């Protein structure tokens, strides 16, 4: 694997998905609102693992 290969690193895809769903174009006055949104996102991902697999895994 190359030194830096975000296309091959599934965590990079998860971060991108989290940022687009949770914090993109959003203003929160309090930090804990972001934490609540991130926790909700993670619960959704954990509740539907096939959605995460379909979204993050590259089909070959």
Describe this structure in words.
The protein has 60 residues and is an all-alpha fold. It contains 3 helices and no strands. The longest helix has 17 residues, at 31-47. The radius of gyration is 14 Å and the shape is globular.
As a percent range, the share of helical residues equals 55-70%
Return Rg in Å. Answer: 14 Å
**Biggest sheet overview:** none
Strand content: under 5%
Poorly predicted residue ranges: none
Query: Assembly state here?
Result: single chain
Average pLDDT over all residues: 83
| Overall geometric form | globular
Q: What is the chain-wise order of helices and strands? A: HHH
> For the terminal residues, how far apart are their CA atoms?
17 Å
Total helical elements: 3
> What structural class do you assign from the helix and strand content?
mainly alpha
Q: What's the count of strands?
A: 0
Characterize this entry briefly.
The protein is an all-alpha fold and 60 residues long. It has three helices and no strands.
Task: Give structural attributes.
65% helix, single chain, mainly alpha
Lay out the secondary structure:
Layout (H helix, E strand, L loop, with lengths): L9 H14 L7 H17 L1 H8 L4
